[in-house]
Every structure is written in structure tokens, then in C-alpha cells.
UniProtKB/TrEMBL annotation:
UniProt: ATP binding residues: K270
Subunit structure: Monomer.
Short sequence motif 'HIGH' region: positions: 29-39
GO cellular component, as recorded: cytosol
UniProt-annotated binding residues for Zn(2+): C27, C210, H235, E239
Coiled coil, from the record: 310-363, 416-443
Species the sequence originates in: Candidatus Scatomonas pullistercoris
EC number: 6.1.1.16
NCBIfam families per the UniProt record, alphabetical: cysS
Cell compartment(s), UniProt: Cytoplasm
Boundaries of every Cysteinyl-tRNA synthetase class Ia DALR domain copy: 356-419
Family the UniProt entry places it in: Belongs to the class-I aminoacyl-tRNA synthetase family.
Protein name in UniProt: Cysteine--tRNA ligase
Domain of life of the native organism: Bacteria
Length: 468
């Protein structure tokens, strides 16, 4: 399998450190709010990478953290008047619900920064002992100039950065030896969560968190480190500096970065009013549609989100589900039982789609082309599986379709359950129809709901509903 490595800027053949095993670290979200659809992109694409590697027979140790100590979490805790750990605990729970709805499997381990402070302190001490860290009034900085390879991931011109950063330096930072030095430990401010450490009562810098959690759960040298492209600099550059100087070993061998998700061709941001949480999208669509949409582009291509593209993703996914449903029916009802004449050859022909699928995934996880291969299989199944054929043939096609979709984390069974939100909306429309004395429409809506297994009851307190 070939993977594009940000470190070397090349597609490279993937060779794991240990045969048959993959260690993979994916930077997870800061939990101060519901996750947004941008956060969902690394979750979905790297979950798909994991599924594909498992399909190939690798045992994947997949670690993804929750950053649960951060300025934004503290701000939220002050705003709501509750402790910071309650804020993060709440959003970790919510994040896990969203992940499940997107069919993103839980990581092997989901470490939380606040549970790993001692390990971070130990790493910072080692860096200090080796001369890579210095303490100024309780703040500990990493000495970037001492690490000759600093900048190797982001391929940036460090001298330009240094002079640029000097101009931008904020007050209080002039105590740094070099503008590119970054914080490993910082003293607490009034009211902030803190831990005791040799330098001050305070908390770790963001970058050291991931270095420590990767080391603890995967080892000093790991196969793959991944995240969104915004993390290349400074986050991942700094992780490399800390880990390699502390451990005296190369850190991650392959660095994978997904491109950004934009909305209507603009950067997603709260102030532009084009900001969506996964939860909001889940009220309108089955989140499988969001997953399908994310995988319909290569993970290194920028991806544009819009209402139209979600509609076409829904329709495309629908074609797969319809084909799968039809194959299920034929598996029960087709004329023949065992393979009929000619069907064996057709099954040989079918193998071409899996080959195409694998070829795409082998080429730096090209899910867009892998999905095209799935559609070719759908087309083939729609023409070749017929009522006059055999049940065995329909079953073989159905199995193939569900296996290929499964590697992408797409379920081929149609979700029959309607969302509460949809039901409420239909009830509202029925009430409106009744008010307008359009009883035919009101009845039609009632019947439509009944078909979905929803029973309405008109009570004195209003309309109540239950699932049949
Ligand atoms: P954060 O909570 O901001 O640390 O982000 C968690 C993960 O989501 C990181 O891997 C980010 O790179 C990624 N991410 C954030 N915004 C976007 C976006 N608009 N498109 C793609 N990935 C994103
Ligand atoms: Zn990280």
C-alpha cells in the first residue's frame, strides 16, 4: 500500500515497523463543544484507513486522544459556572455518540490529556536534563534551535518564520530565547485547573500531550501519525521535536494529513454563519450520508460542503442501498437455488470490481475511485441478477457489495428507523393541513407515518406518537 508522507512529500510504500502490525495515532478533538463537520473529516478518513488495513490483515493499534484541558474548555466552564472536567466529560460523551452515528469505530484507546499529566512531566524533565528545555519563572520552553531537524515536517523557511514571529511576539513572550520556542509547561492563572510540577503549579502545553500519549500507548517509534493539515505546523512539528529529542529515536514514520472541509467554498467559521455541527447534519440526514460524502473525495483534496452536494450524496448512497435490497429479495425469491449455467463465469467477472477497489485504496487511500468501483459493481448487479437467475448468485453479489461497502464503513442495510426530528416535522405539517381544513393531506401524512411504523394519537394535550 502506498501512502503520501508529508515528511518526505512522496507517496511511499507502507512498511510497518513490526510485520502484520500497525501503530497509528490520530489527533482528536478539543472537547469544549459538539464536534463540527470539519472535525468529522479526519475521524472518517482515518477510520477508513484503519478498516482497510484491518481488511488487509494488519492488527491495528489505533490511538486517538481527547484534548480535555485547554483555554476554550476553561472559558466554557467559567461561562457555565461548572468545573472544566464536567464540560469535557459532557462533550466526550456527545462526541462518542456522533462517532457511532457516523460508524466511526471507537479507537483501541482514547486517552485523555488530564489523565496523563505525570507522563508529560517526566518527558519535560528528560528534555530539561538533555538541555532541550529551559525554565523561565515557572514556564518551560522547548529550545528549538538545539534540534537541528526542526522544520523537517512542515518544510518551512525557519529564518523567515523567526523574523515574522519576532514582530508578532506578544508581551510576556520576550522571555523566550528564540521566537520559535514553544511552551511545554505553563503556570496556572487564577481559577484554572492545575497540577503540581517541579517548575510551577500549572498545566502542560498542547503539543507535549500528544507526544506523551503516543509514547505511552504506542511506543517511542510509531508507524503512522495523522490529523488535519492545519496541525502540520506547529503542532506536529513540535511533537516531532519533543519526542525525538526526549526518546532519541525517530518518532512517526508516516505522517498523514487530511485537507480541509469548506462550506460553500468558504472557510467554515462561526462568524461567517456557515458553521455546522455533526449533530445538526444528523437531524436532516442519516450520518451515513455524511460519511459517504466525506469519502467521495480523496482525503488530501479540499472538500466543499453544500446542501446540493449532500442531496446528491444521499441519492448516490440510495442507489447502493436499493441495489443491496434488491439482491436480498432475489436471494429469497430467484428461480434457481444453486448457480445456473453462466453464473460462475459472471462471478469471475465480478472479481474485477474488488481488484479495482483495492487498487484505488492501495494508491494512498483513494476512496473516490474505490467508490466508483462500488458503483460499477452496483450496475453489474442491477443487470446481471435477475428473477430467473439463482439465489446463490444473488447472494454472492450481495455479499460482495456489503463487504466492499463495509471496508469504507458504509452499511448496506437501509436504516428503517425514522428520526424523531422527521416525525415531529411531519406532525407539524399535518396540524397545519388540519387547520387549513385540508383533511385529505392530513390523512395522507398520517398514513405516510403509519407506513414508517409511527402511530399517531390525538389527545386532549395534543398529538402523541409512538413506534408500532
Ligand atoms: P481541533 O478540535 O480543532 O483540535 O480539531 C480536531 C481535528 O479536526 C484536527 O485533526 C483538525 O485538523 C481537524 N479539523 C478541524 N477543522 C477542520 C476542517 N474544517 N476540515 C478538516 N479537518 C478539520
Ligand atoms: Zn495532537
Amino acid at each position: 500500500m502506498k501512502l503520501y508522507n508529508t515528511l518526505t512529500r512522496k507517496k511511499e510504500e507502507f512498511v510497518p515497523l513490526q510485520e502484520g502490525k500497525v501503530s497509528m495515532y490520530v489527533c482528536g478533538p478539543t472537547v469544549y463543544n459538539l464536534i463540527h463537520i470539519g472535525n468529522a473529516r479526519p475521524m472518517i478518513v482515518f477510520d477508513t484507513a484503519r478498516r482497510y488495513m484491518e481488511y488487509k490483515g494488519y492488527q491495528v493499534n489505533y490511538v486517538s486522544n481527547f484534548t480535555d484541558v485547554d483555554d476554550k474548555i476553561i472559558a466554557k466552564s467559567i461561562e457555565e459556572g461548572i468545573p472544566a472536567d464536567q464540560v469535557s466529560a459532557r462533550y466526550i460523551e456527545e462526541c462518542k455518540k456522533d462517532m457511532e452515528a457516523m460508524n466511526v469505530r471507537p479507537a483501541t484507546v482514547h486517552p485523555q490529556a488530564t489523565q496523563e499529566i505525570q507522563g508529560m512531566i517526566d518527558m519535560i524533565r528528560t528534555l530539561e536534563e538533555k538541555g532541550y528545555a529551559y525554565n523561565v519563572n515557572g514556564t518551560v520552553y522547548f529550545r528549538t534551535r538545539k534540534f537541528q531537524e526542526y522544520g523537517k515536517l512542515s518544510h518551512k523557511n525557519l529564518d523567515d518564520l523567526r523574523s515574522g514571529n519576532r514582530a508578532l511576539q506578544v508581551t510576556g513572550e520576550d522571555q523566550k530565547e528564540d521566537p520559535l520556542d514553544f511552551v511545554l509547561w505553563k503556570p496556572k492563572k487564577e481559577g484554572e485547573p492545575f497540577w503540581h510540577a517541579p517548575w510551577s503549579d500549572g498545566r502542560p502545553g498542547w503539543h507535549i500531550e500528544c507526544s506523551e500519549m503516543a509514547k505511552k500507548y504506542l511506543g517511542e517509534e510509531i508507524d503512522i501519525h495523522a490529523g488535519g493539515e492545519d496541525l502540520i505546523f506547529p503542532h506536529h512539528e513540535n511533537e516531532i521535536a519533543q519526542s525525538e529529542c526526549c526518546n532519541g529515536k525517530p518518532f512517526a514514520r508516516y505522517w498523514l494529513h487530511n485537507a480541509f472541509l469548506n462550506i460553500d467554498n468558504r472557510k467554515m467559521s462561526k462568524s461567517l454563519g456557515n458553521f455546522f455541527t455533526v449533530r445538526e447534519i444528523g437531524e436532516k440526514y442519516d450520518l451515513q450520508v455524511l460519511r459517504f460524502f466525506m469519502l467521495s473525495a480523496h482525503y488530501r483534496s479540499p472538500l466543499n460542503f453544500s446542501a446540493e452536494i449532500m442531496e446528491s450524496s444521499r441519492n448516490a448512497l440510495e442507489r447502493i442501498l436499493t441495489a443491496a435490497e434488491r439482491l436480498k429479495e432475489l436471494e429469497q425469491s430467484a428461480a434457481g437455488e444453486k448457480l445456473l449455467e453462466g453464473e460462475q463465469e459472471k462471478l469471475q467477472e465480478m472479481k474485477a470490481f474488488r481488484e479495482k477497489f483495492e487498487e484505488a485504496m492501495e494508491d494512498d487511500l483513494n476512496t473516490a475511485d474505490a467508490i466508483s468501483a462500488v458503483f460499477e459493481l452496483v450496475k453489474f448487479a442491477n443487470t446481471e441478477a435477475v428473477p430467473e437467475g439463482s439465489r446463490e448468485f444473488a447472494a454472492a453479489l450481495g455479499k460482495e457489495l456489503s463487504e466492499l461497502c463495509g471496508i469504507l464503513g458504509l452499511k448496506t442495510e437501509r436504516k428503517t428507523e425514522v428520526l424523531d426530528q422527521e416525525i415531529e416535522e411531519m406532525i407539524r405539517q399535518r396540524q397545519e393541513a388540519r387547520k387549513a381544513k385540508d383533511f385529505a393531506r392530513a390523512d395522507a401524512i398520517r398514513n405516510e407515518l403509519l407506513e414508517k411504523g409511527i402511530i399517531l394519537e390525538d389527545t386532549r394535550e395534543g398529538v402523541k406518537w409512538k413506534r408500532a
